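Subject: sequence -> structure tokens, single chain

Hey, anyone have a minute? Need the predicted structure for the following. Not urgent.
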Amino acid sequence: MADFIYCLNSSTIRPTPILEKIAIAASSGYAAIELWHDDIDLYLLHGGTLGDIRKAVQDNGLEVPTTIFLKGWWDTQGEEYEQELDEIKRRLEQSAELGAPYAIGGPPLGPVDFELGSRQYARLLEVGRGFGVKPIMEFLGFSDEVNSIEAALRVIEGSGDADATTVLDPFHIFRGGGSVESISKLSAGQIAISHFNDCVDDPPREQQHDPDRVMPGDGMMDLGRYCDLLREVGYDRWLSLELFREDLWARDPADVAREGLEKMRAVVEGSIGD
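Reply:
Had a minute. Here:
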């Protein structure tokens, strides 16, 4: 029996239309699906409605833990910041309409001012409260500075906000040069969601990007230890399969989703009691 909630990040079957992604997630055995705002907007552009998407989610018995993503909240100023904030509010409105409790916000990829980022994240959380949605501060392994659990904690703690959280992801921990052992520095309440995937050592770590992550169990990460650390801090919510591979996008999306869930279960449930 799994002690996490299996979720499909819709990037894993990216070319598939959004309503089909939702149906595939449910039929494959997932309990939840993460949705991207680009997919939502494409559906709306062709005459669909947010109500259609929410009905599809509900009819398929799924939940939407997060929508992805919010940008420009950390490193913009003045008129540019206000423009980015307008777009953030538009996306948060979508998140709320779809019943998502969280929306993922990405950091800058270059050098940053952590004090500024902490203040801006606190402001972002306040904006989110107006929609009933909690923005997440994600760290990215290929960011110059915001690339580790420690960096995320710096922003979370600096914000002074009890709703501050981050996203965990084996690939981003590995790519940033960190250790899964750093999960022990977090409380369960500081982890909004955990993405799930595996890592390889070719190409070299420092050259890797999103397409280099692989299915759970197909790489070299000790994902059993990763899951144990999540359990030790008390995290028991979503594990979301997140991949960005063109070879998977070229396959039958239902086959990819089923294979991903099987491999997640083999890793996660195989680690229980170790």
